Automatic annotation (TrEMBL):
The keyword Zinc-finger does not apply. Its main location: membrane. Residues 396-420 are annotated as: Disordered. The keyword Zinc does not apply. This is G-protein coupled receptors family 1 profile domain-containing protein. It is found in: Membrane. Belongs to the G-protein coupled receptor 1 family. It comes from Plutella xylostella (Diamondback moth).
Length: 420
């Protein structure tokens, strides 16, 4: 909530000679928040209330000179923001179940040994933590808060935890995705040395670093944001509202935007873009090589060797295509966030408040979808993943008490045959 908005509310209240009581003001805000059956964020509610009060009192207040992100699309984004709470709950529920299945399949014996699958498994674990933690935030922020307009200290503490935890886990997902791309690049570019370069130990190091680096990279955010208090008036008299804020004029605040936008978002996206272009070229070159092998394999003795090589190349291509889909979806999600963060650092608080906040819910939605859709990609593009999932889902489990009996019957039959 901006200081200008609070000043406007105060001016309207005093201009009306306090004809509106504190309780009536609160009821007015709640009425606007539930208007047309929707729930708006508090700042939008206050803006609407100010406009209505200005019209009734014939007052002219100082308008905001910030003209960023104006236009018809703003109304569209505000309409989506009103339903974001419900949409994100659905996505989180589906995403948690999907990633739990990813972990269950990728830890099966047939898939667990491959380093690529280990990276995918921990990527699913990071996404599960992000979505589980997001649920209580979205319930209170979008479903409870618009009706109560209550900002207790416990909510501020959780909001601070949510801000840091979500950023750390999301940064861990970025590091794991980058490790995934680099791992695949090495495996294809240096295929003759992949057994030396792509070892289990190095895979473990990549996973550990992916979870150790994010807290270090997020140190500026830890130092910038803190819990602040603000005196408010409620039905019982005077109270205190707790909220998360930062020193917007400090250098550390500006540096935080650059670290978040450039180091955490745009730099990994730039590296991924280069790797994706190279992987696409490698796929095109491999397909052309396979066609040449099929055209020149006239010798019958070499035909079986060519067929085996063709099957191995097809498996490699399917894996690479699946990873390309994961990486491209990641770019679609992260690049807009990086650009908005960079522009917020360049253009200042006004752009951040008008634009970053406006698109924040959409950015969260894209990030949640990115984490929830991987199960669909794995099933549609990996035959081994589909087969393992089918075996896991359809395999009947024999009762435990029947296992000794069956073993005993087999041993009895074997003993009888020996006696004969």
């Amino acid at each position: 909530m901006s200081n200008q908005t609070l000043l406007d509310i105060f001016l309207l209240w005093t201009a009306a000679n306090k004809s509106m009581s504190k309780q009536e003001l609160l009821l007015m805000l709640k009425e606007h928040s539930l208007k047309d059956g929707g729930r708006e964020d508090l700042e939008s509610v206050l803006e609407v209330a100010i406009k209505d009060a200005q019209s009734n009192l014939n007052l002219t207040l100082k308008t905001d000179t910030c003209g960023f992100c104006d236009g018809d699309f703003r109304e569209v984004m505000m309409a989506y923001n009103r339903i974001h709470g419900y949409v994100s709950l659905v996505v989180c529920t589906v995403g948690v179940l999907a990633n739990a299945l990813n972990v269950a399949v990728l830890t099966r014996r047939e898939l667990a040994a491959a380093p690529i699958n280990r990276l995918l498994k921990w990527l699913a674990v990071a996404d599960v933590f992000v979505m589980l933690e997001y649920v209580p935030f979205v319930v209170y922020r979008y479903l409870v808060l618009p009706e109560t307009l209550d900002f207790p200290y416990s909510w501020a503490v959780y909001l601070l935890f949510h801000m840091h935890f979500a950023q750390i886990m999301h940064t861990a997902s970025i590091c794991l995705t980058l490790s995934l791309a680099i791992w695949r690049y090495i495996a294809i570019k240096y295929s003759d040395k992949s057994h030396i370069l792509c070892t289990e130990r190095r895979c473990s190091i990549a996973i550990v670093l992916s979870f150790m680096l994010p807290p270090i990279l997020c140190i500026p955010t830890f130092m910038v944001f803190d819990i602040h208090t603000k005196p408010v008036s409620d039905s019982s008299g005077h109270g205190i509202a707790y909220h998360i804020d930062a020193d917007k004029q400090g250098r550390l605040y500006q540096a935080n935007f650059w670290v978040h936008a450039v180091l955490i978002k745009l730099l990994p996206c730039s590296i991924l873009t280069v790797i994706i272009v190279w992987l696409i070229r490698a796929l095109y070159s491999a397909n052309r090589h396979q066609k040449n092998l099929r055209n020149y394999s006239a010798c019958p003795s070499a035909e079986k060797t060519v067929q085996r090589q063709h099957k191995a190349d097809k498996r490699t291509d399917r894996t690479t295509k699946m990873l390309l889909a994961v990486l491209l979806l990641f770019l679609v999600t992260e690049v807009p966030q990086g650009i908005l963060g960079l522009m917020s650092g360049l253009l200042g608080w006004c752009f951040f408040k008008r634009c970053y906040d406006l698109f924040g819910e959409l950015m969260d939605f894209l990030a949640l979808v990115n984490g929830a859709i991987n199960f669909v990609l794995y099933c549609s593009m990996s035959r081994q993943f589909r087969q393992t999932f089918r075996q896991m889902a359809l395999r009947p489990r024999a009762p435990r008490h029947a296992e000794p009996d069956e073993s005993h019957h087999q041993q009895t039959r074997f003993t009888e045959k020996v006696k004969r």
